[in-house]
From TrEMBL:
Organism (species): Kaistia hirudinis
Domain of life according to the entry: Bacteria
Main location: cytoplasm
InterPro entries registered for this protein in UniProt: Aminoglycoside_PTrfase, Bifunc_ATPase/PTrfase, Kinase-like_dom_sf, P-loop_NTPase, T6A_TsaE
This protein's record includes keyword tRNA processing: yes
The keyword ATP-binding appears for this protein: yes
GO terms (BP aspect): tRNA threonylcarbamoyladenosine modification
Descriptive protein name: tRNA threonylcarbamoyladenosine biosynthesis protein TsaE
């Protein structure tokens, strides 16, 4: 098995701790990290920094496991910290539960050479040796680690050259895509003021295999495969007077963005949707939709990004997730004529949808992507985080996304009041066709719910069953949309071919 080697000079203790944070940022279940070097070489310093980074707690007590041999930490990612210095015989390692720890978490092993052949697997080995006033770290790794190590070190270099040298890195969130986020913080200055920002780690990805009809899923559905759309939309949203995070530093080619930290106060309070915050988010949409928005957006390098249309192909490929993924999940085999009827109904609905008023369609305008900013004024109090997959399409779509939030229950009365707030604001800003909006809203909600049912089933099949807990809620929204006459044929199709049976809800649902 080939092995790659990286040599790093760590000039002081802070640099050793930063390396621990850099490793923590990429650690996942099943990872084994071997810490080698003599007494006082810095193994415990690095391990302590790594564990505290996973815990997001700089004050976490992390004692050396020299005498206990193993110390376990049930954190966001479970960590087992082993010190084999006092191991009497390599076979004693079997009693420490290393294999079990790697099934659900990661493990750090100091003095791994004392475990002999009982330590196996694709491990990252980090050897620390004194050099000058600091240390030299030699990282030796199999191919399975090489790409991740290169990426985390590239992020550290990006921070260093972006006027954030030595910044602390902490996991913020990942999502269903390849994007990941970190909160980075500079130490407090003499006045006690620290600085924080959000790092978006979104390496460009290949758009996937070609589809039988041509193009890939990402191409047909207009899903971003690099950060260019995010940058263009972010600048455009801010230029239009709305709150999106300022771009503090960018490496567009490498897929790294440093963004203004808008905080973490959302539009949900105490586990419940806050109506005034949701209503404010609806007014943001009303003001955004009241003015014609361009599809050609300027880029920092002088180029132009063109926002794609929500066209028939994108509309259709999203709802096609239901027969491809959700139907098999619930044990339904659709006959060819049933699938043909499903597609025909959606073609008819798209024709109606496509005639509706259009604007920037942000696509995922719901609670996880909206921040409440109490110190700003008016609609600027809502921060918009996620917009890289924006299209030009029916403005009602984002209102439906907000009013039928797939991650939290929105009661019918709450949703109706939210739509009323949007309509009132639109009517105050100029002529507005409320009847056409209602039809476009129902189509948007049904299309989105259909896509989400298929998409969450797909994610579950890829080892993420937690998404299935949202299925009953999404079905509730879908049936709510069926109350509009424009969806009568679709409602009948579902009833005939894929009815919802609460008792037989997919595993993982509440």
């Amino acid at each position: 098995m080939s092995a790659a080697t990286v040599s790093l000079l760590l000039p002081d203790e802070a640099a050793t701790r930063r390396l621990g944070e850099d490793i923590a940022a990429i650690l996942k279940a099943g990872d084994l990290v071997l810490l080698e070097g003599g007494l006082g070489a810095g193994k415990s310093t690095l391990a302590r920094a790594l564990i505290r980074a996973i815990a997001d707690d700089d004050a976490l007590e992390v004692p050396s496991p020299t005498f206990t041999l193993v110390q376990s930490y049930p954190l966001r990612l479970a960590i087992a910290h082993l010190d084999l210095y006092r191991l009497g015989d390599p076979s004693e390692l079997l009693e420490l539960g290393l294999d079990e720890a790697l099934l659900s978490g990661a493990a750090l092993v100091e003095w791994p050479e004392r475990g002999g052949d009982f330590i196996q697997g694709d491990a990252l080995a980090i050897r620390l040796d004194d050099e000058g006033h600091g240390r030299r770290a030699i990282l030796t790794m199999p191919d399975a680690w090489a790409g991740r190590i290169a990426r985390t070190l590239a992020i550290r270099a990006f921070l260093d050259r972006s006027a954030w040298p030595g910044a602390t890195r902490r996991h913020l969130q990942g999502d269903a895509s390849t994007r990941a986020y970190e909160r980075v913080t500079l130490s407090e200055d003499a006045g006690g003021h620290g600085s924080s920002a959000v790092l978006m780690n979104a390496p460009a990805r290949q758009p996937g295999p070609p589809l039988p009809g041509g193009g890939t899923y990402d191409e047909v559905a207009h899903r971003a495969t690099d950060v260019v759309p995010f940058v263009a939309m972010d600048l455009a949203i801010r230029a239009a007077g709305f709150s999106a995070p300022a771009l503090l530093a960018t490496d567009i080619e490498d897929g790294l963005l440093l963004l203004e930290d808008l905080g973490s106060e959302g539009i949900i309070r105490h586990g419940e949707p806050d109506f005034e915050r949701y209503a404010l988010a609806a007014e943001v949409l009303a003001e955004l939709h009241a003015t014609r928005r361009p599809s050609a957006l300027p880029l920092p390098d002088g180029g132009t990004y063109r926002v794609p249309p929500f066209d028939a192909a994108a509309f259709a490929i999203e709802v096609d997730l239901l027969p491809r993924w959700y139907a098999p999940l619930v044990g339904v085999t659709l006959a060819a004529d049933a699938e043909a009827a499903f597609a025909a109904i959606w073609r008819s609905l798209f024709a109606r949808f496509d005639k509706a008023e259009k604007s920037w369609l942000l696509r995922d305008y719901h609670s996880p992507n909206l921040i409440y900013l109490p110190h700003r004024q008016g609609t600027a109090r809502i921060g918009i985080l996620d917009h890289q997959d924006a299209m030009i399409g029916a403005s009602a779509y984002d209102v439906a996304s907000l009013g039928q939030d797939v991650r939290i229950d929105i009661a019918p009365g709450f949703e109706s009041a939210l739509k009323a707030r949007y309509i009132a604001r639109r009517q105050a800003l100029g002529p507005f066709d409320a009847e056409a909006f209602a039809a476009a809203y129902a189509i948007s909600g049904a299309q989105r719910a259909t896509k989400v049912l298929g998409g969450f089933a797909r994610l579950a099949s890829f080892g993420k069953p937690q998404y299935l807990r949202h299925i009953p809620r999404v079905w509730g929204y879908l049936r709510r949309n069926f109350e509009h006459a424009v969806l009568s044929d679709l409602a009948l199709w579902y009833e005939s071919h894929v009815p919802y049976d609460e008792a037989a809800a997919p595993s993982g649902s509440p």
